[in-house]
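TA notes, week 10

Several of you asked for a full example with nothing omitted. So below is the full record: structure tokens for the whole chain, then the designed sequence directly under it. When grading your own attempts, check the secondary structure regions first.
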């Protein structure tokens, strides 16, 4: 009987050790993940958001037929894109990405601005219907139309984004799929391609950083 007891002790100790190891693995893994997450947060706080020049002054018409431009955006952080309502290509995706920004930024003063690159067709009334379909929050997301020359000059020379009037063989306007982050001083601080799956995540992260850098 003593021999049996002696043989059982190592087996019991081994079982206890395995149980301890199995319990410790998820705890250590969780602690490691939390540590890595904290490192990521600290890196986000410490990095800077680049600057790419300043958006020139402009005045256009919004979906309510009212003048809207630099004066209304002065002192605000804002995000811009270039689209048109009859776009058969990337515009629905770009506008969806913009719409996704509304929820995470709802408690901030960040403004959304969409410029139409087909202003002849995109009248304020047409843009108002487009805004309603996107459930755009009134007073927080403006859709702008106006002279084509003003909008195209703003895209090319202001935002440094390519744009074409549709004079090619396809006969449709061509424009950038990038969304642009602008700070409270009118400086461009980042470009985000709406075609990339993590575009909204990156844009929200940089906008949040900018809100800390430039509090209201």
């Amino acid at each position: 009987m003593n021999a049996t007891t002696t043989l059982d002790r190592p087996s019991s100790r081994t079982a206890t050790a395995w149980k301890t190891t199995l319990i410790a693995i998820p705890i250590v893994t969780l602690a490691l993940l939390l540590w890595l997450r904290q490192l990521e947060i600290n890196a986000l706080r410490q990095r800077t958001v680049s600057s790419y020049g300043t958006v020139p002054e402009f005045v256009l018409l919004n979906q309510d037929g009212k003048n809207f431009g630099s004066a209304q955006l002065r002192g605000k952080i804002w995000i811009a894109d270039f689209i048109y309502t009859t776009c058969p290509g990337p515009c629905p995706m770009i506008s969806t990405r913009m719409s996704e920004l509304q929820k995470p930024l709802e408690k901030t003063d960040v403004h959304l601005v969409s410029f139409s690159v087909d202003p002849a067709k995109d009248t304020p009334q047409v843009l108002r219907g487009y805004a309603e379909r996107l459930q755009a929050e009134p007073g927080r997301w403006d859709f702008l139309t106006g002279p084509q020359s003003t909008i195209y000059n703003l895209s090319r020379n202001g935002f440094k984004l390519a744009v074409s009037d549709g004079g090619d063989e396809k006969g449709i306007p061509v424009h950038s799929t990038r969304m642009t982050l602008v700070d409270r001083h009118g400086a461009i601080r980042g470009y985000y391609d709406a075609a990339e799956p993590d575009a909204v995540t990156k844009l929200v992260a940089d906008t949040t950083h900018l809100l800390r850098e430039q509090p209201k």
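The first strand starts at residue 59 and ends at 61. Use that as a sanity check on your answer.
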